[in-house]
Amino acid sequence: MQISIIDDLPHDVAHEFLSRDTAHNLAILGALLFEPVEAVYGLQRAAGCAAVGLVVAGEANIPDALPTVMIDAVDAESFLALLEEGMWPSSATWVAHRREFLPLLERYLGRAHTPGQGMVYLGTRAAPPAPPVAARLLTRADAALDMTPCSLSAIALSYWMIRGWRVYGVVEGGQLIGHAVASYPIDDTEEVSAVFTAPDARRRGVARACAAAAARDICAKGKQAIYVSRQNNHASIAVARSLGMQPLFETWEIEVRKRQG
Questions:
Q1: I want to staple 180 with a disulfide (CB 3.0 to 4.6 A). Which of 11, 109, 197, 210 is the partner?
Q2: Burial of 63 (0-12, 13-18, 19+ CB in 10 A)
């Protein structure tokens, strides 16, 4: 196979390649569009781009956070070729989002994925029914609310709104006790993200109310509402399923830390 490796693939080329299958590439597309990407690698064949790999910076506010590596390819041969040629970090969290590539990645890294540590993506195009608890669309005027029950700041709320994301919340007695955000637009999808309930308000349907409001907003725009959760976060997955969302795909993670000394 005649190939060439591109060490600094333009983002628009990577985006076009990944968008050929948005349904299975939401994880890596989200990283490309919304996360601090340190490197983009590409594998070129005669017919065009055949594989794309990303290195995403670790979260700055988490000590010893590892970068994340994600790869997508048109076939196993191209996946392995980029895997073997890319200048990958020695310590990283590797994410597989196609089941057929997971054994290849495990074999290359010499270790298995950690069960339950990946993500599950759920979605719906049908607006869920309005739940008994009512959540409303928040505005910039709501920055005056007491948001300490949700450990949220007015700056964070404004940041979401400046990006054009719609924030839904449940307010009681001048306090924000739960929120969810219609966010991360990718093609014809948007994500129901930042679903949170204040500890003292849990088990009252607040999370479901906020998530339902955000999902209804997304579906009303003719888009698919996406919900992302850790595989082992059964309570979060239950919220999504209560809104009629169905599993779309999973990701699997393999953590590699270089030994010190």
A1: 210
A2: exposed
